[in-house]
């Protein structure tokens, strides 16, 4: 059978910290669009339609980091989430023509031998790219973190850092739908405006323009914070600890401000958790994937009714992948960052 | 009706930080052992039998501290837990002759108008002083913290700081009864020996003799810690964070190392909660008092069967109260510190 072109994005070497465009390069390979006869029984050949840029896609020096997989191996395609179409399959659960989302590689076509992350896409009346964000891993992170870890209730005062991120957007909208008072922080006036106008946040602020985060939070939460959905750690966590209410919950989805530091920042206000009986709970979405059907049942109707919306930054073509990934880490993406390779 | 002597221990002035003997003084007052006719409908006159010395009995500069009551007001009797006998009562739930435990005052006889903390003692086949410790607020703290906050399971690796304290003793024994591996830290060889010989801890160490707490915990927990029951905060919390296992739980009952500091210590290893999806949960026993009957049903049989034991340091006579309280804060008490005033 004839071979076709297979453009790939590969890592130049080992990456430490946040990846830059220059850490990756394009390679023009070829591939046969049929699985070899000897392919193992769970192997699937896919066409990658949309690739996902996510904050976990970074090198780490920390050996104690619990990573399910490494996105970067020298001269190998970047590994990450994507939406794919099955072209050939030895796996009993996936047939030619199926749409799936899960962990794939940054190339036009991939042979995937480890398919445990694949979830078949049953609902195609929403943008397929949503399965990289709102309806994929970030969406599940928002849902599990808010409902299963945050124990939210109507009327709660909710603060979300990195609120414009792939996770924060949904957390804020879920909180509003429940009847919470919601404030978000983000890194630009553009993002702050969208948080309020499109996502219905009660308030939002640009953390880069604030001198004293403690005072800022006191201004927006004169009665204190019930739930802090923390994506950043560091100074924002410090300020939030001071402003939490009794029995408050800090849901830690990430501490992106800390990963690049040689020595992590000391958090001085931790003793507040004793004074105010606060729960600080870090979690990983992988422990909650069994809730995915329930999640879809909850979110899909909201999307169809226009009650939940989502902002994506769609880069076009696999060549734009490295710049898109760098943009996500530097806060330049204007929405959940994805890379569109093909519509079908 | 004739008046009788009523020795009292009063606070000399406002107390900041840990109380010293010299912050209190003895006063010989008198009292009539009958409630006045005009006493309000919930008032109770009690004879104080055993008074309790507990770590919350300290002055604090912090305005955000959530205290249910203040133990020290100038020239007023110290306020704290005690076991009492009812001598006269306007309260429908308490009759003359009843034994109760709850918040009373450091004096031989007290008129208590705020009796919401009082719990009637139904089981007197155990030492009455236990209702200040093992069967009182510290015991409930251990029980609620271990079971309701720690989510323990058989085989868990459990570390308890201040393990010889009024709370730690019981946490360790509950963990052993469940089939956990239990290590405790304490501040003297005497305490370490009792933790192992009497309470059945698998291991125990004197934290004052350890130079590198991280290495110490690695030695005792080569596979890591599932539950850290934290009574101290600070350096021990820092070391525990590094040694927690994935999905570990840090149950924060107190951070006694931090209360005296002008500026709290920065906790640098907090980012570990993200790497390992750790839950840090501070709690107060007051949110779990509805479980008290269930607690008694669990603990009383263990006491009767000798499966749970308790070490008390019993100071004799109200005059010994100030020294006993200071001893508890300086780690000199050889067991849960109580002050015995009368047997009945």
TrEMBL record, chains A, B:
Tell me the Pfam families matching this sequence: ADH_N_2, ADH_zinc_N
Q: What SUPFAM superfamilies does this protein's entry cite?
A: GroES-like, NAD(P)-binding Rossmann-fold domains
The record's listing under CDD domains reads:
double_bond_reductase_like (cd08295)
| Record GO terms (molecular function) | 2-alkenal reductase [NAD(P)H] activity
Oxidoreductase as UniProt keyword: yes
What InterPro entries does UniProt report for this protein, alphabetically?
A: ADH-like_C, ADH_N_2, ER, GroES-like_sf, MDR_fam, NAD(P)-bd_dom_sf
User: Which positions fall inside the Enoyl reductase (ER) domain?
Assistant: 63-339
Highest taxon listed in the record's lineage: Eukaryota
Keywords of the record, alphabetical order, are: Oxidoreductase
Q: What is this protein called?
A: Enoyl reductase (ER) domain-containing protein
Q: Which organism is it from?
A: Pisum sativum
